[in-house]
Write a structure and sequence with these properties.
Layout lengths: L7 E3 L9 H18 L8 H7 L4 H12 L16 H19 L5 H12 L4 E4 L5 H7 L8 E3 L1 H7 L7
Parallel strand pairs: 1-2, 2-3
Helix pairs in contact: 1-4, 2-3, 3-4
């Protein structure tokens, strides 16, 4: 049944690669440092699912901070550090790239088998992801050459494309 389509679109996070563990570590590192700098209670792993999972990065930061009763200005896109929501979010993204570079990532074996099967059919494949890190994740997993197109958060921002679920 899967062979009846002419092309295939894949999400990345949780479908091709198990990036959730890397995201959780990056959030832990970021919020450990953030809350320590403010003398507040440490970040707890349960906060990932309560406030961060499934949300765009800056929305997740805002939700967690609101949940903790911490007010920060939204800030600017290029902010760094702990003085704004965007600064905290950008710090987390830098932590994610560091974790990815340090620990690497492997694709799910079942996903690789499916990609192999579709490659035998010469079916065009694409990744569509809200992540701004799709290219580095695919590169770290050794999958860059498998996809004819990658439409990620970088492309969406550049092209003015709406996010999920649109």
């Amino acid at each position: 049944m899967i062979d009846r389509y002419d092309a295939y679109l894949f999400d990345l996070d949780g479908v091709i690669t198990p990036t959730v563990e890397l995201h959780k570590r990056a959030w832990q590192e970021t919020f450990d440092a953030f809350f320590a700098s403010r003398g507040e209670a440490p970040y707890e792993g349960r906060e990932y699912f309560a406030f961060l999972d499934g949300r765009p990065r800056f929305a997740g930061v805002a939700a967690l901070l609101t949940g903790r009763g911490v007010a920060l200005p939204e800030g600017e896109d290029l902010d760094e550090g702990f003085t704004s929501v965007r600064g905290v979010g950008n710090r987390k993204n830098a932590a994610f790239v560091e974790v990815l570079d340090r620990d690497g990532i492997a694709a799910y074996p079942g996903s690789v088998r499916l990609l192999d099967h579709l490659a035998e059919r010469a079916a065009p494949l694409a990744v569509v992801s809200s992540s701004r890190n799709a290219e580095p994740v695919l590169r770290a997993a050794g999958l860059t050459d498998r996809f004819r197109a990658v439409v990620d958060g970088v492309v969406a921002a550049r092209e003015g494309l709406p996010g999920k679920p649109a």
